[in-house]
């Protein structure tokens, strides 16, 4: 038995360790394609904070890199193993420790599944908004690591907005408490927020205090068909400019609509160039939808169909949620981009993406959290074809370059991981990158936490 | 002419410098009482980013400490000068550079006055929520430095929620860009949020991209009288537990009510032990207020008076805004605390504060952002009386200790500054403090930025 396993076993039960290479290999990567992934030396599945501290003390003593993981549903390779690492899977720490309707907080361990939390708080009339499309399987710890978004963000923001306080095991095994469980607090630097989106490179989140909201009414959805992406984006701008607060404002392009129709029997309108979905979750939702319908018509919509009820609304949302899986069937493989631009630049972003698609000769379907300006262009290609692969990667990069040119960011909600680390440097610039590295060094001087990610 | 002034003048116009000690002395401190303040060597009032960079390069070259200042309305001594420092006042950088209704952002320089921004965005049908009580004079840069709150926070959160991106001049004069102007973005560590509330210890904010919201309807206010602080706090818990989203939920105790009546002719009910103000800024505000009124009655309110209209509502808000000035007239001096506890512990906090007041023999009036659990106990005393001063400081400290015991924080929105730096260590603990110092060292290795604050 090697020294690493021996030392890990001195503070962990045997069943918390996996050393069989056939099994550890299955923990090597998340759901991002085309990202390097090494072979873990061992996978550990701790159940307590003390066990996590033991793992980190061991890693520090033996200078072994540690890759923290949730459900590995991430799309940037941030959870990918490196050779010889300890994979630290937090999925067994899955207890909801507290739900307080008066304080409107939940206290959870990192392995709690997003949907499990959502359902648990719902029983108290409460709402945990962040809803990444993997919400049925992804964990809160993973959501915190990548600052996950979802369909709700246009009204409710991303995961970062809901993390009030954390307990974090540092690289050397010490326990750090950050933040608070109060509604407000400004005591010292906001380290809580620093950990959100840090992709496991600063510490291991072992407990989180999350803010909750009262459960809103079920949302009512309207679908609007547009003759062009430009007119749909114009409608998005009008809706936001007039002061509406939709709970969802999503766009599917023609490629996406057709892919969804091929995969399901939803019968979405195939002649549309862009389908816009807009929802409200207020008591006055019907009136809001009517006003939004008029704005869509003014912007050039060829058809506006408000859902009659919550059930019909849910069907439309299903169509939107099927977008990525459906686009994945177009060709043998996909690369999913995640560029977010200022809302006012959304039209230019979609137009530019269409030009990139045309030039590359590839299919690039786009679905977008349009209200946020957050587009997911999905580059479809055959990885067996070297030329197609090359064009796919080039298009993927050109889309990010376009996003930066338009004042946007290379990642709205999926994170950097290994997929976009060269691009992070371009977005942040030299000074920005240096300060980020300074923060990393302050928390992880030996560079053991999730090496090769972000930078 | 000394070397510092000479070097500053090499990159600044003469009128941007103040060296007359009588004048520089007037820049020595903010509005916090009983905080040490040194004598500045010079006050500089730059108008451009390049001038700020020149100041910081000079400070680094000559190893001179720099104390950044906004309008000096802070309540923790965070803007107090240290001996021989450069006071770097940002008040002349007061341009609103952009307001975009489509992107719902404003881009501003740090010296813009909060109220000036609020009025400017109002003309576009937009709303910048953070509203500290000094909003007519305080600056956005100061608000960012202290992560200011206000009356709006129970619904809209604090300044931190509205800062999307920053331009920051670092200690060595380099320019750092953080964040974004997009609705979402997760590219790298959230340095933007790290600067918010950092009290000028990490860098000089020279530009900010701020999130805006659609302007809500004017709020309608209800006043409820309670026979005890405990029953009023019970009402607060019931209101939040039932899923209401008030735009304001404030409490004034009997001492505060009487002080306001003495100062004004408002005629608030003097027999009440606690006056609760609750407001809604939704289209259905009247119905929401009726429901809240019932909850107040259930909790034991002796009287519930909804305002008839926006004008009457504004009068009630005026009474609340007069609370601190009115309490300041009770005795020659005051110390204003800022403890925030979980909402569910608000009753215990107020009860404990009353016990501390009784034991000290001093008047301690309490107004509170009750919906946030954020209390402002105001310790009234005569600084000429050494024994009274000693008891005042002891009570001020006991209130913070009580807040920590109840799971709260020593500062909900006023910051740490010099006033509470010993207490920050108590709240953060050893590991927390060490990591905070690590962050400080990464940004300001020479320790020139606002020394003696926070830590």
From TrEMBL, chains A, B:
Oxidoreductase as a keyword?
yes
Instruction: Print the keywords alphabetically.
Output: FAD, Flavoprotein, Oxidoreductase
Domain (FAD-binding PCMH-type) spans 36-215
Q: Which SUPFAM superfamilies match?
A: FAD-binding/transporter-associated domain-like, FAD-linked oxidases, C-terminal domain
A GO molecular function annotation here is: oxidoreductase activity
What the entry lists under Gene3D superfamilies is as follows:
3.30.465.10, 3.30.70.2740, Vanillyl-alcohol Oxidase, Chain A, domain 4 (1.10.45.10)
| Cofactor(s) the protein requires to work | FAD
Q: Which InterPro entries match?
A: FAD-bd_oxidored_4_C, FAD-bd_PCMH, FAD-bd_PCMH-like_sf, FAD-bd_PCMH_sub2, FAD-linked_Oxase-like_C, FAD-linked_OxidoTrans_Type4, Oxid_FAD_bind_N, Vanillyl_alc_oxidase_C-sub2
The cross-references to PROSITE patterns, in alphabetical order and at most eight, read: FAD_PCMH
Query: Could you name the domain of life of the organism this protein comes from?
Result: Bacteria
- Signal peptide range equals none
User: What's this protein's family per the entry?
Assistant: Belongs to the FAD-binding oxidoreductase/transferase type 4 family.
Q: What is this protein called?
A: FAD-binding protein
Tell me which species this is from. Streptomyces nitrosporeus
Name the lineage: Bacteria, Bacillati, Actinomycetota, Actinomycetes, Kitasatosporales
